[in-house]
Amino acid sequence: MEELQKAAKIAFASTFSFYLKAHNFHWNVEGVHFKQLHDLFEVIYSEVYGSIDDFAENIRKLQAYAPASLERFSMLSTIDDENGMPDTGGMIQELLGDSEKIIHVLKIVYDIAEREGKHGFSNFLAERMDAHEKHSWMLRSCLK
After folding, report:
1. Which residue, 43, 4, 49, is CA-closest to 142?
2. Rounded-to-integer distance, Cα 56 and Cα 32, Å
3. b/e per residue, 37-64, with b = 16+ CB within 10 A?
4. How many CB atoms lie within 10 A of CB 83?
5. What is the Cα–Cα distance from 142 to 82, expressed in whole angstroms?
């Protein structure tokens, strides 16, 4: 169970970090495609944010505490902070790469949850992977 708790916290922190980056890009995107990207980033960050509470509650069901500070998120997250302001193509590329990282991390946690017989949690994780597959598809389509 300890391995699952640790992996779940990493995935949770990564998810929150991804949400924050997508929200940052929503606020700060500029350029000829401003409206389309502003709206797309809002769709993405809103969907991800909508999963945060359920994710934390799933961690609590594993008899662990959900991380809840920026310092802790930074320590656990697989998503790098963005302290600069990339151009629109850079924003899209960065969110796409991060969404793919999230899928990878969620898959690891999913496999552990399945092995531990935590099928309710693994169902949640499968839904999260599917949501990120959609985010990745939309972001990838913007790069063509």
Report:
1. 43
2. 38
3. beebbeebbebbeebeeebbebbeebeb
4. 5
5. 20
Rounded to whole angstroms, the Cα distance separating 53 from 128 reads 13
What pLDDT digit, counting tens, does each position of 23-52 carry? 999 999 999 999 999 999 999 999 999 999
The tokens for 89 are 């193509």
Global confidence as pTM: 0.96
pLDDT on residue 109: 98
For residues 9 and 36, give the distance between their C-alpha atoms in angstroms, rounded to a whole number: 33
CATH number belonging to domain 2-142: 1.20.1260.10
Element (DSSP H or E) covering residue 26: helix 2-28
